[in-house]
UniProtKB/TrEMBL annotation:
Keywords: Arabinose catabolism, Carbohydrate metabolism, Isomerase, Manganese, Metal-binding. One of its GO terms (biological process) is L-arabinose catabolic process to D-xylulose 5-phosphate. This is L-arabinose isomerase. GO terms for molecular function: L-arabinose isomerase activity; metal ion binding. One of its GO terms (cellular component) is cytosol.
Length: 465
């Protein structure tokens, strides 16, 4: 899945009050808006609308942004603009919004005259406009900065990535093969609430379609996939030709089915595949490689978790599906792993990723080829999407560090030990009080601020622990 820069629209707000006093002010301030766009060229593609000098201009500009399928709207006060001209617009805004509290000149100088005061008076328009957003119940980000400063591009870039991820989540389709795991409550959700509140649509896919899709790839396609994996991974010599062929067909078949249904994320429950009768083993390694290709994934039919793994791809990159397996109190850390699925792009680079023959009793099927690796040591962030009911969602987020710990030779699935910044006791107390789920997305790096801005863009409650 190719990545692209976020695409945002710049809505510059002003009014015709100053035209007689300062002829050419509209054209001058439009040039200022284009300067702002140029300052953001490295972090976003910016479409600059004509200056919005009234309600009709503003509404037409935002309709254009929506029709062009942009990711968000950057609101800039080109002069003071009365907020009642955009109040109705904000009450119906469908795109994430950031208010850039900026001005043309960074400093007030003794040379300023009334014209300079007018060109730089955006701050009180920003106050009026922000008040209208708050009263409309519109979530929005605010960036106060010199627009020429690097910090401005960094902060708006973070919001733009969050807007892109929120927009992608709003368009997401999640494929579910079979049915979700019986009795697993923290993954249950109301489909209409999910699509209405966040956007993901659930597509239930019969296992028979997957079985047929696995038979479609030619021998040459299978050979090409396996040759690429032999270059990338250390392949266990105990894996038979039949096991490798089945593994490759799983990966190719799942991706074909997802493409047919327009799904960028999926989940499969081991019992649904195990009880079907047409599958020899579970698609562990396939899930790992599809995550590495940018698909969202979660086990056991967990649609919210698959959705947030996908959001992790789009917001930060290389989302890794995992869960908390056990606590290590002496090491103040948590063992992170799952049955065998994990994004191998988060693997440490001083050890090979291994494609192993691995016994697994879960599902009642034959041994599934599994990608085994340890997570790269260093800063990392966990995030869990919680369904609260009533159309409300919460993201529980913990920053910390993956330890450069000892190997666990008997653990034949991706793993690592995560030490929360807040300590394992306080982190887990906060996680459980917040209702954090057991299926989690991990991203490398300290990315809590990215998730915080994403939550504002997507209308999700943000809860750090």
């Amino acid at each position: 899945m190719s990545e692209r820069l976020p695409r945002i629209g710049l809505l510059g707000v002003m009014q015709p009050l100053y035209d007689d006093m300062l002829p050419g002010i509209t054209e001058r301030q439009h040039g200022y808006a284009r300067e702002i766009a140029a300052a953001l060229s490295g972090v976003a593609e910016v479409s600059v609308a004509p200056p919005a000098r009234g309600r009709e201009d503003a509404e037409a500009a935002v309709r254009g942004f929506e029709n062009d399928d942009l990711d968000g709207v950057l609101v800039v006060m080109l002069t003071y603009g009365p907020s009642l001209r955009v109040t109705r617009l904000f009450s119906r805004m469908r795109l994430p919004v950031c208010l850039a509290n900026v001005q043309p000149d960074p400093a007030v100088t003794a040379e300023w005259d009334m014209a300079d005061m007018t060109y730089n008076q955006g701050i009180h328009g920003a106050q009026d406009t922000a008040n209208a957003m708050v009263r409309a119940g519109l979530p929005f980000e605010v960036v106060t900065e010199d627009f020429r400063a690097r910090a401005f591009a960094e902060r708006v870039g973070r919001w733009a990535r969050a807007a892109r991820a929120a927009a992608a989540l709003g368009r997401l389709k999640v494929g579910v093969f079979g049915y979700p795991m019986n009795g697993m409550g923290d993954a249950r959700f109301d489909e209409s609430e999910l699509i209405r509140g966040l956007g993901p649509e659930v597509v239930y896919i019969a296992q028979g379609e997957l079985a047929r899709a696995m038979a479609e790839p030619s021998a040459a396609e299978v050979k090409e996939l396996l040759a690429g994996e032999r270059e990338r991974f250390e392949v266990d010599e105990r894996l038979s030709a039949e096991e490798l062929d089945d593994h490759a067909r799983y990966q190719l078949g799942i991706e074909r089915v997802l493409e047919r249904h327009g799904c960028a994320a999926y989940s499969a429950h081991f019992d649904a595949l195990g009880e079907d009768g047409r599958f020899a083993r579970l698609p562990m390694a396939a899930a790992s490689s599809l995550m590495a290709r940018g698909y969202g994934f979660a086990g056991e039919g967990d649609v919210p978790a698959a959705s947030i793994v996908y959001a992790g791809h789009r917001l930060i990159g290389d989302g890794h599906f995992t869960e908390m397996y056990a606590m290590d109190f002496p090491g103040d850390s948590i063992l992170m792993s799952h049955m065998g699925e994990g994004n191998w792009k988060v693997a440490r680079d001083d050890e090979p990723v291994r494609l192993i023959k691995r016994p697994l009793a879960i599902g009642g099927l034959d041994d599934p080829p599994t990608l085994l690796f340890r997570i790269a040591p260093g800063p990392a962030t966990l995030a869990s999407l919680v369904t609260l009911g009533g159309g409300r969602f919460r993201l529980v987020v913990a920053e910390g560090e993956v330890l450069d710990g000892p190997r666990l030779p008997a653990l034949e699935m991706p793993y690592g030990q995560f030490r929360p910044d807040s300590g394992v006791r306080d982190c887990m107390d906060g996680w459980l009080r917040a209702g954090g789920t057991h299926h989690i997305v991990m991203n490398l790096g300290r990315r809590a601020e990215d998730w915080k801005v994403f939550c504002a863009a997507a209308g999700i409650e943000y809860r750090p622990v």
